């Protein structure tokens, strides 16, 4: 099939210029577009389809003789072939004539595939069984003879169920040769997702010998995909941490301002049995209790206390009104900011920006003046 693509390249006519030298008949153009739309939607009536099938199979007034593999012959009508395929139109112009007959050859694929292909040019339809059996051959023929709708049908059928572990590598190679980017991308993704199984298939082993560069490209894509996956996981974990820090800031303000179940300001009545809407509140209550009673409370002396000091400092950098804030040490940390090194200042500033960006806000709502 690959040889057939290469041998027929010289027969493919150059595409026409985008501009037209003469006037365009708008009504004809509209009829042509409507006809194409009907064909693409497979809405041709069964009676019309039967009529075209009879014309093909009975060969009434056929004028083209198509030679296939193993001495097979398919009869067709030159006008239909020329209208359906610009490549066949160019081949027919160069074909030898004997009376009314023109003789061309379509080789490299089984005789039954040629019959299915030519029948499609007549009816723009196919039997499901033929598509399942000949889909790869039909993909090649649709590319070589420039029949875009058949090419689309082949790609769609492969995408929706005819792709398998056994033919993935073969389909990828054909998709690349037949300029089917969507199909090749789907094959690449499936190969990467099922690489362990695909790498043991005969198709992969053959490709390693015949197309080592393609193997290298797929392996490089696997590395890229793995790096993207790792980066996505890292960002998800990072986002989770920033959201937890924001929730901790909300819970800290809630505890110090309103009080929660077992801890809060001296002037607030605590309700131990009431549920709390802040998910971080329970853990933060335990941390505050430990901080209040720990004898190694100095920074660096206790891991839990060190975490509490960091939460206090983070709060102070998020707080917009430290003068009226009821969180302990908020004003003290605000005053210390000017004395910190530039490196520490930048580090804290980046952390605050990432927390607010992750939450999608400019200022934390829990720090706005009520």
Automatic annotation (TrEMBL):
Residues 1-11 have a biased composition (Polar residues). Residues 17-46 have a biased composition (Low complexity). GO terms for biological process: regulation of DNA-templated transcription; response to hormone; response to hydrogen peroxide; response to salicylic acid. It is found in: Endomembrane system. Residues 236-333 form the TAZ-type domain. It is a peripheral membrane protein. It comes from the Eukaryota. CDD domains: BACK. Residues 1-46 are annotated as: Disordered. Pathway: Protein modification; protein ubiquitination. Keywords: Metal-binding, Ubl conjugation pathway, Zinc, Zinc-finger. Coiled coil: none annotated. This is BTB domain-containing protein.
């Amino acid at each position: 099939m690959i040889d057939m693509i290469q041998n027929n390249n010289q027969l493919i006519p150059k595409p026409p210029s985008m501009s037209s030298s003469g006037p365009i008949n708008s009504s004809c153009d509209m009829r042509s577009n409507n006809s194409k739309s009907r064909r693409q939607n497979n809405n041709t009536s069964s009676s019309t389809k039967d009529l075209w099938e009879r014309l093909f199979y009975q060969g009434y007034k056929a004028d083209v003789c198509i030679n296939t593999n193993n001495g097979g012959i398919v009869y067709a009508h030159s006008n239909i072939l020329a209208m359906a395929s610009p490549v066949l139109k160019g081949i027919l112009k160069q074909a030898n004539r004997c009376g009314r007959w023109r003789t061309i050859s379509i080789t490299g694929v089984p005789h039954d595939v040629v019959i299915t292909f030519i029948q499609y040019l007549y009816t723009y339809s196919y039997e499901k069984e033929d598509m399942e059996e000949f889909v790869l051959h039909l993909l090649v023929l649709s590319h070589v003879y420039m029949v875009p709708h058949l090419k689309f049908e082949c790609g769609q059928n492969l995408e929706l169920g005819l792709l398998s572990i056994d033919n993935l590598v073969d389909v990828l190679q054909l998709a690349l040769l037949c300029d089917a980017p969507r199909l090749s991308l789907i094959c690449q993704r499936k190969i990467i997702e099922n690489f362990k199984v695909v790498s043991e298939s005969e198709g992969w082993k053959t490709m390693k010998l015949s197309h080592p560069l393609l193997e290298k490209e797929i392996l490089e894509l696997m590395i890229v995909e793995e790096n993207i996956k790792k980066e996505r996981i890292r960002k998800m974990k990072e986002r989770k941490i920033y959201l937890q820090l924001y929730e901790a800031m909300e819970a800290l303000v809630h505890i110090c301002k309103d009080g929660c179940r077992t801890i809060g300001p001296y002037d607030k009545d605590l309700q131990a049995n009431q549920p709390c809407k802040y998910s971080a509140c329970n853990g933060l209550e335990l941390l505050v209790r430990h901080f209040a009673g720990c004898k190694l409370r100095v920074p660096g002396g206790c891991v839990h206390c060190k975490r509490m000091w960091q939460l206090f400092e983070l709060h102070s950098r998020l707080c917009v009104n430290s003068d009226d804030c009821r969180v302990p040490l908020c004003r003290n940390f605000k005053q210390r900011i000017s004395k910190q090194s530039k490196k520490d200042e930048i580090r804290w500033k980046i952390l605050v920006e990432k927390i607010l960006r992750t939450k999608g806000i400019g200022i934390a709502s829990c720090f706005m003046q009520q």
